[in-house]
Amino acid sequence: MVTALAVSWAAACNGSGGGDGNGPGEDDGGDGGIDPTFDPSGTAGECNVDALLSVESYAAKVKGLLTGLGVNQEELAALLAADDTQAELGDLVDTWVDSPEADEVLMRFFMTAFQQTGGDVESFFYLQGRNAASTGRYSAPNSPLAHEMLNQNFAESFARTAVRLVRAGRSFDEVLTTTEIEMTTAQKVFLAYKDDVVVHDDESKTVRHTAGDIPTITLVPNAGQAPPPAESFNPSSPNFMRFYHGRLTEGTGSCAITGPITIDTTSLTDGDWRLAAGGEFGVANFLYMMMMGRHESIRRHNVTPNCNTGARNRAPVLDREDFYDWHTVSLRKADSANPATKFWRLNQVRNATELRLESPQAGFLTRMGFFSTWPNNEDNSSRVTLNQMLIVALGSSFDGEAVTDFTPEGLDQAHAAPGTSCFGCHQTLDPMRDYVRASLTNFYGEQLDEERQGMEATFIFGGVQQVGTGGIEEFAQILAEHPAFPGAWIQKLCYFANSEACPPGAELDRIVAAFTDSGLDFRVALRELFSSPLITGESCVADVDAGTEATIARRSGFCAKLSNRLGIDDICGGLTLPNDADDLQNDMRRAMASVPDDSFSRSLVEPLTISETGLFIRANREVACTVAAENAFDEAYADASAEEVLDHLVTNVMGLPANDGRHDEARAILEAHVAEAQADADLTATEDEALRSAFIIACLSPSTAGVGF
Amino acid sequence: MKRDRDERTRRSPHVGRRGVLGGLSALGGSVMLRSLATGIPAAVLMDPLSAGADMELPAKTLLIASSRLGDPMNANVPGCYGGPDFDDLYHPLGPEMTPTDIMLGSVATRAAKPWADLDQGVLDRAVFFHHGTYTPVHGEMPRVQRMMDGTERNDMLVSLLSRELAPRLGSVQAEPVTLGANNGGELLSSEGRIIGNVAPLSVRAALGGVDGPLKRLTALRDKHVDAIHALYQRRGTPSQRRLLDRWVRSRQDVREISTGLIGRLEQIDNNGEVNQVRTAAVLAAMNISPVISVHIDFGGDNHVDADLSRERDRHVTGCATIGALMAEIDGLKSEGSLSQGVIFATLNVFGRTLKKKARAGRDHNSAHHCMVMMGDGLEGGIVGGLEKGGKNGEWRATSIDRDSGDGVPGDAGNIPFEETLFSAGKTLGAALGVHRDRLDEMLTSGAVVESVFSST
User: Fold this and answer.
1) Burial class of A616 by CB neighbour count within 10 A (0 to 12, 13 to 18, 19+)
2) What span, in angstroms and rounded, lies between the C-alpha atoms of A433 and A209?
């Protein structure tokens, strides 16, 4: 309900409680009833807000969301003393966003928001036009499999890129167009390989950069005979293209191999050893898979009985560090003066800050993380891809409403005839997907089919209409300039903070305008939104019919709190693959598996941000807190006294600084717990056990396990 | 709707089919024996025609398998074989999928071998309900759960059923439990709140807790957690208090769960389908929730599936998983650990085309899906059928005669094609023991097909 009265009440119904340092209302003695002096709903009803949050609560909410940390005494004092708390909070938000703790929070947000996290073994091989197999791993200690590490690279790559853009104050629409991407060496190799071996719509393959490069490959049966990778991939080395193959020693009789064998990749001779997969693709695939630790099959040509070694997974020829050496890489168009980068030129690729590629590049739209998440095929013909691109960029999907006076040529009549319930969607979706199909095949290789390359696509969505033949790069530009783009990203942040959309109205419009006017500086979006009553619930908002809801802390947020408040990096192993993780991370990962995290779903416009608790969510969080108490406590509190531990539990883990009205009583409750646990003759807890148990209480407290307290 | 219900009760199908109407009143002793045997109140057996309006059948737990991928489960079930012009209704080839004669109760029919391999005791309680879901869109799984927006307050049917059944079953919680949501699109919601997925390993961890030195401090810790909550309650907004209340309730729920069956979860070592159904059976025995959902793969989104080989392989494993579930339930019952009846059912976002691509794969079919229902109180059989008439001459579900449950081509049945989904939902609700009047409130369209209920 929009009322002038609502606006006029805004100042009066500020929930800060008057700035006396004790928050709204005083302690009533701890009998468990409602504090009679504190009426949180106050005059809120007059402005249709459920209830207003105190400074303590909303400051904890905002800082906790952005950094995982609790508010400190100075920050709370500054807010309590401020005449304009929204401006003061805005300044604090700037500081918090600049902190290193915000990096991981933003990265997790972007990984989900850009839908980069769906890769698995099937998608890894599908992008190469192959059936799923496996890859190798390093030993001592065992690493994850190469494709698992690479999929994790894919998931993080664009999120890291987005964080860099945000930190640099770049216009946020560059997420649609940028060609400066955070990558690892392993990713660069994959990207160069995928640019080389194009998988066409019909699954046939063309090798366009490395065909004929490798006339012979020498394989040795013992790992000790293999040269270092730097020599294997160095054309001037005598050991060029010499590799260990893990199955050579297994043949018997006429299939036995006792020493090095050299394979001629240019011709086939009866009885000679050859790569099992033939042609130029066979060579490129063999080398690429060797880098990933998969020794592909070789066989003797045209002999009976058949001699085929089969494949074997061993250590990748890439270095372990090649999967972790993040750096910024410029993806540039190959031309005659600067030919495409060859994936097997490992030494060049490893040192390169620039890759030369033929394939079109357009921000998140062409990242392997996105492609892995949304595999394409001839049947859906990029419809899913296109729709998810719209959802990510514009927070919108096709709504089924038919557009009048528009009969596109690209409409697939087999899917939707005029008059059917599907027509409205297909009428606009089918001609728009040709932006994708003109540039990318069903396997996300560069589209080389001339018929499809030249397809004219039509963008007609959200009040914008454009026809073009510029493919994915033109599509990216349309999205970047689309009026829905800024608002869509503000709403994604709303879901992140409130687990629901921000209600439309003047305040939301103001924030979107501020973001737009800043030149799409995402830091401005964060400051304006997170200091707004739409997130803080500090005061009434014109046009708004609901207040902010207290919610559970979802997995990433909760883990960020524990990590940053205890000083233990990635405590839940959310960004660490199981084989790279320590016992604590793996135990925490298992315990937290059913605490919901931010996620997304096919064709669902709204981010999935579960706000409610339940039997199992609560129980799993308790298990996680217990695991942390048993296994992280020593690291966090190595030399601390009992008093210091209790202080830290209240002020840091629970995030209640001394000037928070809840601090003293919370401290008293934890003290009582420690005392009673030791005093109870049946429990006979040691001080150490009692303090660990107090940690669980702090860990389960609303400030830690919830958002908006 | 009142007129419809009256008409339905006058023409109660299964009683008519068996010709026992009128004989019951004269066979009081027999009725009493049957009541004891089936758990169905004698009054219902004495006058089943009015049962819908006046009586409540015993409440049961629902274990439901859902897939947003739209698995080809509809392609090889009873009802898809033996028709006069089924030549272009394709099935996977090979000995694993051989069309096999089976008996569903007293109904002789055919199905792919994996279905036929289920125990006869299961098949005698298995109903295959052919219907449409009216959407070809993966993302509309939640909408299908809401019966295409045809439910009370637009809530998911399973959540409405869950809340209805919880007090009657005395369940720990009224919301469903989701064990196998493959993706956000398979998550359930209740009253607008999305319910998070709980993987089997997490169930084991949650209910088993952490064995260690801190476990013996649990009760004392609960006391001080409550004190912390009270502190926040006193200074809390209404929204904060609501969440605090739910935390407290959730904690109490966990503490009140009987630990007797937790040992059965020790064999859970991954989150796969076999462990999902094993966990579901144990949660049913613990009476945690009236509705527990799992995911069982029957071939997934198989647009491209050469020779339908994936469909074949997943049918073999999928039916075996269902068989394992039913065996687990029967085992828990026979040892006295599970006291209430259980229905297993399936509801995917859509079925798949049966003709269009022959054996090269299957596309989405909004006009045909098969809800499988198995369990206590059901009489084996087939409801509905298939006819050509979908897009491009594709197979689609027929209308249904609600008396006999037979499929009626040409939309001439008294359950038109457009109401087959709602009727499947209502029939499922009735099978779970929800009062018919209440079902009419939950779903304003469709009718219960009475022929699915066992009278013996």
Assistant:
1) buried
2) 28
Q: Pairing mode, if any, of strands B364-365 and B351-352?
A: antiparallel
Please tell me the distance from the alpha carbon of residue A89 to that of residue A110, in angstroms, as a whole number: 23
State the pairing for strand pair A242-244/A216-220.
parallel
Write b or e for each residue in B338-373: b if 16 or more Cβ atoms lie within 10 A of its Cβ, otherwise e. Answer: bebbbbbbbbbbbbbbbbbbebebbbbbbbbbbbbb
Can you point out the beta strands (E) in A540-613?
Answer: 551-552
Q: Which residues, 6+ apart, have CB-to-CB distance to B101 below 8 Å?
A: B108, B109, B110, B116
Please enumerate in sequence order all residues whose Cβ is within 8 A of that of A431, keeping only pairs 6 or more positions apart, or say none.
A408, A409, A410, A411, A457, A458, A460
Q: Crossing angle, helix A522-530 and helix A85-98, to 10 degrees?
A: 140
State the Cα–Cα distance between residues B99 and B95, nearest whole angstrom.
Answer: 9
CA distance A709 to A703: 5
At residue A110, the 3 state secondary structure works out as helix
| Residuewise pLDDT in 10s, chain B (456 residues) | 233 333 323 223 332 222 332 333 333 444 444 444 444 444 444 444 444 444 567 999 999 999 999 999 999 999 999 988 899 999 999 999 999 999 999 999 999 999 999 999 999 999 999 999 999 888 889 999 999 999 999 999 999 999 999 999 999 899 999 999 977 789 999 998 889 899 999 898 888 889 899 999 999 999 999 999 999 999 888 889 999 999 999 999 888 887 778 888 888 999 999 999 999 999 999 999 999 999 999 999 998 899 999 999 999 999 999 999 999 999 999 999 999 999 999 999 999 999 999 999 999 999 999 999 999 999 999 999 999 987 778 999 999 999 999 999 999 999 999 999 999 999 999 999 999 999 999 999 999 999 999 876
Cβ of residue A203 closer than 8 Å to a chain B Cβ:
no
CA gap B104, B101 in Å, rounded: 10
Closest chain B CA to residue A597: B196
Please report how the helices A687-699 and A663-679 are oriented relative to each other, as an axis angle in degrees rounded to 10: 140
Q: What are phi and psi of B272, to 5 degrees?
A: -70, 175
Closest Cα in chain A, distance from residue B101 (Å): 35
Assess contact for B261 and B286: CB atoms under 8 A.
Answer: yes
| Chain A residue nearest residue B289, CA to CA | A615
SS3 A122: helix
Q: Which of A412, A495, A594 to probe by mutation at the B interface, max B CB count within 10 Å?
A: A594
Cβ–Cβ of B172/A612 closer than 8 Å? Answer: no
The span from the CA of B347 to the CA of B141, in Å, is 9
Chains A & B: contacts with CB separation below 8 Å = 236
Is A35 an interface residue toward B (CB < 8 Å)? yes
Given CB atoms, is A616 within the 8 Å cutoff of chain B?
yes
The dihedral built from the CA positions of residue B98, B99, B101 and B107, taken in this order, carries a sign that is: positive
Among the partner-chain residues B185, B210, B247, the one whose CB lies closest to the CB of A627 is: B210
What is the spatial distance between Cα A498 and Cα A707, in angstroms, rounded to a whole number?
A: 8
Give the three-class secondary structure for A197: strand
Q: Which of B210, B231, B254 sits opposite A618 (nearest CB)?
A: B254
**Residue type at A542 in one-letter notation:** A
Supply the pTM of this predicted model.
0.83
Contact yes or no for A550/A53 (Cβ under 8 A): no
Q: How far is CA A540 from CA A48, A50, A53, A537, in A?
A: 8, 10, 10, 7
> Residue B84 carries which side chain, given as an amino acid letter?
P
Residue with tokens 């993780």: A581
Q: What is the ipTM of this complex?
A: 0.88
Which residue, among B232, B239, B245, has the nearest Cα to A666 in the 3D structure? B232
Partner residue opposite A32 with nearest CB, options B137, B221, B230? B230
Q: Do A626 and B196 touch (CB under 8 A)?
A: no
